[in-house]
Amino acid sequence: MDIERRIQGLRNEIRKHDRLYHVENRPIISDQEYDQLYRELVDLEQQHPEFLTPDSPTQRVGGTPLDGFRSERHRIPMLSISNTYSPGEVREFDARIHRMLQTADYDSALGISEQEFRNACGKPVEYVVEPKVDGVAIALCYEQGTFVKALTRGDGVEGDDVSANVRTMRTVPLHLESIPESLSHLEVRGEVYMERADFESYNAELLQQAKEPFANPRNATAGSLKQLDPREAAKRPLKMFVHSLGYMEGIQFQTHAEALHALADFGLRVIAPFHVLPDIAAVIALCDEFESKRYDLPFGIDGLVIKVNSRHQQAILGSTTKSPRWVIAYKFKAEQATTLLSNITWQVGRTGALTPVAELEPVPLAGTVIRRATLHNYDEIERKDLRIGDRVIIEKGGEVIPKVVLSLKETRTGIERVPERPTQCPSCGGVVHRPEDEVVYRCENLSCPAQMERRLDHFGARGAMDIEGLGDVLVHQLVESGLVKSLPDLYRLDREHLLSLERMGEKSADNLLSAIQSSKTQPPSRLLFGLGIRHVGSHVTNVLSRTVGNIWELKEKSVEQLTEISEIGPVVAASIHEFFQDENNLTVLEQLEQLGLNFVNAEKPEARPHTSPIAGKTFVITGTLEGMSRDEAKAFLESYGAKVTGSVSAKTDFLLCGTDAGSKLTKAQQLGVRVIELTELRSLLGE
Ligand code: IVH
Questions:
Q1: pLDDT at 399 over 70
Q2: Ligand 1 atom with the shortest distance to the CA of 81
Q3: Concatenated DSSP letters of 631-673
Q4: Within its chain, how far is the Cα of 230 from the centroid?
Q5: Which of 79, 132, 319, when mutated, tests ligand 1's pocket best, judged by the most ligand atoms within 8 Å of its CB?
């Protein structure tokens, strides 16, 4: 009994110091004193494993590396935020909110009483303004105050379970303090990020180990969260801020600010600084003031987030499919720097397109050192009248790669040179051709090694097949040596092949072979993304793989059928269609399948909307649904290929109706729209 009590006491003591150090930034004991407490706890837990609990401060690094990340559906989708770039747009946002609150009808407000609805519509609108942290969105789930899991945003509907890595972060409490007894579930959302200084020293370390550095703190953060070995993730200098609420049971908040204060009391590290402001004029004044202060913060921000403070007003305003209507981002102007354009080189892309690259005198910008920038195409070089030797202004907006804005012509000395148009491929020396109606030059040699390198790079990248160890240098060696002439060749490599490459050790060869081998089990969405079909990014491949059960089904679809898939537009559809008509591509696919890659969506038999009885049907949701929020119901319907809209019209096929339905039900009955309840819907879908 004494021992159990001592263990409890030590845990509480250590948690207190963890919080003081990592969350509140005001430690009160020395590192040695802390280590002593920690070691005593570790010893006692080792001697008495019966008292070990997962929320003990010693349980931050869980044993063995994972094979991959399990994905899981968010109980409430993780939406994004729409952007504004000027005070005028922020004012429009405010005007829109006032208009919506004045004209809202009670039926569209979720989870509040009619009385609350009326009060909220009449009240002035207060705002909370927070930094928009340039990091990676994560949801943390606590049950009875104990940390149970962390999910990435993923595609917003489902994310990856990165609990093992997030657990290692000291800024994430494993145990919440002083929570109300009723609080059974608490999901909070926030941003994992790296401070600028930590990023720089981490990158310096990578360089020292002859490893590839990360392009920016955000990429470094994303890469760290996707480490399969939590012991590795634990070494990365990650931090987390919490800035919003997800699914909750047993607690309610009146305002966002109240929620932030409560979360801080629970020991969570809440976004700072945040400001509660009485009206939009005060918000705009703060935006203005903050723009110059952004570098005073130790972490990168790309703007501010403006949120309606009242939770009731939030509920009335609701969300579109993409983002809540009660929140908006105010993005800062892109950051700029001046440097020397020392050369222009041409890079060969996956599809043979030649892209000019500005080689720059290294210059610090937005927390990283910039050496290169994109120039898009030759026309742009001409339009901007860029010359080699010019001083240029470069800019970094939201995108990773900076761009050249203009050249400072007044500083020319006369030795600057006009860059030449490409005449041959810098990689294979083949002819370069510029189609009549296009701006890009292309290398038309299908077996051009540079194209193959880029395809292979993309195929093995994080987000695609994620083949650890298949970096730029190795890709170059594999293609140059002729070992890999097409994607399937990658799966035909053996130990001997690899050992014939320069600087390749036995251990690296074995690791690479096992990474290649295990990439075969990547889900088909990753494979589709890895193929690098034009206009088909990771979001589109997620959508596609939710729609089809097998990659080959895409081959059978016409452009029209592809366009019917929600979120697939005509350009993307045409590109997918073209890809699956090409004999070479089909051969590559056949070989990949024979080599054992995963073409079938095994886990998601339900995710085949084209065979579901409600595929393509339009739904409206009303009333309170049993055991399902409206957002959940929407995601549920969409997973069966249905569309969900906000108001009942002649085009509505079904009204999904819960208890306490209002005017929508009346309207549906008037229009003769089929009204269906959740239980009936479930049996219709065979759930
Ligand atoms: S609130 C949808 N607050 O920005 C409302 N988001 O561009 C929930 N972000 O996906 C998000 N700082 O990951 C919120 N203070 C902040 C934020 C923030 C960064 C991220 C967030 C979101 C993305 C949208």
A1: no
A2: 24
A3: HHHHHHHHHTT-EEESS--TT--EEEE-BT--HHHHHHHHHTP
A4: 20
A5: 132
What tokens appear for 108 in the block?
Answer: 């569209």
How many domains does the structure of the chain reveal? 5
CATH of the domain at 54: 1.10.287.610
Say yes or no: 592 and 458 in one domain: yes
SS (H, E, C) 32-100: HHHHHHHHHHHHHHHHCHHHCCCCCCCCCCCCCCCCCCCEEECCCCCCCCEEECCHHHHHHHHHHHHHH
Same domain, 37 and 163: no
* Mean confidence (pLDDT) of the chain: 90
The protein residue with its alpha carbon nearest to ligand 1, atom 18, reads 132
Please tell me whether residue 342 adopts helix, strand or coil conformation.
strand
The alpha carbon dihedral of 202, 206, 207, 208 has a sign of positive
State the Cα angle at 631 between 643 and 106, rounded to 5°. 95
- 126 lies in which domain range? 121-331
Does residue 132 have an active-site annotation?
yes
> Ligand 1 mean position to 128 CA, how many Å?
13
* pLDDT one-digit tens code per residue, 170-202: 999 999 999 999 999 999 999 999 998 899 889
Nearest to 455 by CA among 351, 374, 541: 351
Instruction: Note whether 394 and 469 are same-domain residues.
Output: no
Residue 364 is encoded by which pair of tokens? 């610090």
H/E element holding 402?
Answer: none
Higher pLDDT among residues 610 and 137, named by residue? 137
Model pTM above 0.70: no
Six-digit token pair at 593?
Answer: 């399948």
Angle at 191 between CA 190 and CA 197, to 5 degrees: 150
**77's torsion region: left (phi>0), alpha (psi -120 to 50) or beta?**
beta
216 Cα to the center of ligand 1, angstroms: 19
